[in-house]
Amino acid sequence: MDNYYNSPILARLLKINYHTDCRVKEKKLKKGEVFGEHSGPISVLKWSDKKIVSMISTYHGAEMKTESKGQKIKTKPISVIDYNRFMGGVDLKDQLLQSYLIERKRNTKWYMKVFRRLLNTAVLNSMVIYQANTGKK
To answer: How high is the pLDDT of residue 4?
Structure first.
């Protein structure tokens, strides 16, 4: 779950009433430090990397795991590793389009913003289909 769509009350409600776990992705911390609190089935965790990342989870605790990418070794919370591994299509789309957004251009007409957003999505979808069919980037 994203920062905009979560709260401790919602996490508790989903866990107790529907047996559904949730995960979200902002105290001053130095790089690599972790701060976490637990209340029943809910864990709230802050971790400092390039930015401070806040997480609320009913599935993970404050466990850390060491990852190596090439020669770089980083210690990350397991909730961040799982979020990155299972990141949904919307987050991936936003990440891929971030540097190419044409809807950022100022325009007072709402329908132009909608058109530009749909155009961005269509171009990204065509790129994904092209890569899947040809194997080329």
So the answer is: 58
